[in-house]
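quick q for whoever's on today - can somebody do inverse folding on this one?? i tried earlier but teh output was garbage lol. tokens:
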């Protein structure tokens, strides 16, 4: 257990650094990567809430569940951000991005295009994890501890991606546009 805990002290920061690096390679801007990285604390909070509610202690299996939900949270955030960026860029190329209200409309359009697919992804993942959460077969005690942070974390990460990510992107993009107009 002590060796595994020592390994986790290396694996968890390495996983976060790898997520950050992969996001930066894909998104190409630090601000967009930081927006996505915001999903990770939200997923941790949801995972912790469910662990406390179920009375589970921190274990290796729980840590594995948190690593898995970090990847899922980042994935849902990336997909939402890609849709929003696409809508903003489309409005920009069409010459519609002339005001803060036009930017808001573009962000809303991109977000709205992703709501149903995001909810379908989250719901199917949660439905797939529920049998694990309620299983009683051999090995289910360990699997429950992997699934619990994923279930709780995926729920709160989805709320973050749907409710918090679009306004945060709107604010950051507004600042980017204001700076580019001021310097150009």
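ok took a stab at it. sequence:
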């Amino acid at each position: 257990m002590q060796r595994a805990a020592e390994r986790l002290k290396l694996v968890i920061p390495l996983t976060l650094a790898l997520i950050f690096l992969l996001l930066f390679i894909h998104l190409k801007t630090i601000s967009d990567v930081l927006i996505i990285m915001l999903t990770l604390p939200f997923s941790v909070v949801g995972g912790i809430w469910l662990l406390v509610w179920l009375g589970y202690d921190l274990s290796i299996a729980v840590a594995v569940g948190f690593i898995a939900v970090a990847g899922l949270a980042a994935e849902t955030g990336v997909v939402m951000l890609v849709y929003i960026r696409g809508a903003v860029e489309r409005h920009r190329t069409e010459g519609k991005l002339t005001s803060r209200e036009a930017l808001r409309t573009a962000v809303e359009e991109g977000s709205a295009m992703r709501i149903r697919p995001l909810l379908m992804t989250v719901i199917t993942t949660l439905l797939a994890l529920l049998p694990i959460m309620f299983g009683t077969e051999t090995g289910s005690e360990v699997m429950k501890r992997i699934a619990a942070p994923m279930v709780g974390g995926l729920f709160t990460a989805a709320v973050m991606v749907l409710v918090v990510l679009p306004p945060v992107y709107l604010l950051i993009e507004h600042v980017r546009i204001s700076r580019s107009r001021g310097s150009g």
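fwiw DSSP finds six helices and no strands in the chain. also The chain has a mean pLDDT of 88. so keep that in mind when u check it
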